[in-house]
Amino acid sequence: MLLEVKGLRKDYGKNTVLRSIDLEVEKGEVISVLGPSGSGKTTFLRCMTMLEDASGGSMRFNGMTAFEERDGKVVYAHKKELQKIHSMYGLVFQSFNLFPHRTVMQNIMDAPLRVQKRDRAQAEEEAKALLEKIGMTARANAYPDQLSGGQKQRVAIARALAMKPDMLFFDEPTSALDPELTAEVLKMIRSLAEEKMTMVIVTHEIPFARSVSSRVIFMDKGYVIEQGSPADVIDNPSNSRTREFLKKLEEE
Predict the structure, then answer these.
(1) Predicted TM-score of the model (pTM)
(2) Order of strands across the sheet with 64-70?
(3) Mean predicted lDDT score pLDDT of the chain
(4) What is the DSSP letter of 56?
(5) Which phi and psi angles does 173 have, rounded to 5°?
(6) What is the pLDDT of residue 252?
(7) How are beta strands 215-220 and 30-34 bridged, if at all?
């Protein structure tokens, strides 16, 4: 088991945003998380990547405990263990989050050099290979403000891959892009799925989720309402709230 989440809860004051969520992710799975705005999707992803502190529950990565609840309080692992866990996954944001004053190559090489203390020549060689993979070799020395939104997102994906993670998380990776650029980024993610990269993707792209996912999760009001294969959840949902949500998307 690569990722195991049990009873995850997130409170903001008296407002509970996540309500006892369980999730297990096996190596090579692609999980798409669907749901309306305010359903808790992004908070769920931010708690799994530890950008937000959980209010309850537990989480394990590759057998290592990231946090667990003891006597009603959530206790996180020690710093060194957390550093190991952080190195196991990459995160791609909807807003790209590239360093504006660094070139494409520098953005990709930054974490391997600074965080993982890798050899510069090796990091540069691997960055060049990633640039070739994403079709951006010619833009190695460009700065983020010289790139299209689709190019920025491809660089953000390459930057996450440069850490050699076991798993990638995506937070609505195409929400800031127009349809043509969306197709460009989804093609890149689809190629990662074909290579058996383990991924959890918060998305509103239903045809993409149907085609690429091993499993689909539908969330609403902080709960996982239903989960299963794309054929079950997207094409034949058992819950009325899921049906209502998908019908509304079709009408847009």
Answers:
(1) 0.93
(2) 15-25, 3-12, 56-61, 64-70, 73-76
(3) 93
(4) E
(5) -65, -15
(6) 65
(7) parallel
